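Morning!

This is the sequence you dropped in the shared folder:
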Amino acid sequence: MKIGFIGAGKVGCAFGRYLTETGLDVEGFYSRSVLSCQSAADFTKTKVLSLEELILSCDYIFITTPDNAISSLWERLKDFDLKGKNIFHMSGCLTSDVFCDAKKIGAFSYSLHPLYPFTDRECYKFLKDVIFSVEGENINNIKSFLDLAKLKYFLIDKNNKAKYHAAAVFASNYIVSLAKISKEIMLECNMDEKFIVDAIYPLMQGALLNIKEKGVEDSLTGPIVRGDYNTIKLHLDSIEKYKEIYKSLGLTALNIEMEKLEGCKDEECKEKMEKLNKIEKMLRGDK
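The structure's back. Tokens below.
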């Protein structure tokens, strides 16, 4: 089992290094940029390869270019003999269908995507704990690789790939967006910018720690959990720019609490449900 990478960016370098650290045989990298290819080879202690060398020597080929380059690169690869080769891309949104006609030419095609935000190639240190999605035909054909690589993975239907990637964006990219909103509002309150990360990070860290330890639904805190109508009204009156985002997220939080009360008949539950119904009307803009 010999592995090669086409593309020498953060994902390719990190995953290549992870595989070498796990004991798998990574031959090396091909990239249009000689400098980035050499850097990737040095980082993973592998080789710089030409495209032809990589395809001839490797039976597992990972395309780790930007998404918009995968299709055109695949058209180049089809000029080579790919029979029996396992071809992967690592896009979160695209499916193995991007490798059109792979079956006709005797190649096996897959998408393998890590649920992790790659800020730099040092992220290889964390991949042992990351969940991967795998999609493609004849998964049994690559099961030995997945096991040897010690990957935690689940199989995803290609029809759900875009939806799955949207979920990942909510969990990763948009948590940064929420931090940006919090920062802007803190600045409006005259907080010194140098204090802002230290101010909001414990809140976000605590929420994430609760999610890990208690699960998503049992980690919610704040005025909606308390059924505190007046506090939420004060919030809405004070954040005109972000009011609609607050309302939308508030309704999601409200649904979490309402689901917990389903089937509960005691007076305390009825009282809380009345409070939540009142809050829902406010968030939806009902009179």
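Headline: The domain at 2-160 is CATH 3.40.50.720 (Rossmann fold).

More detail when I'm at my desk.
O.
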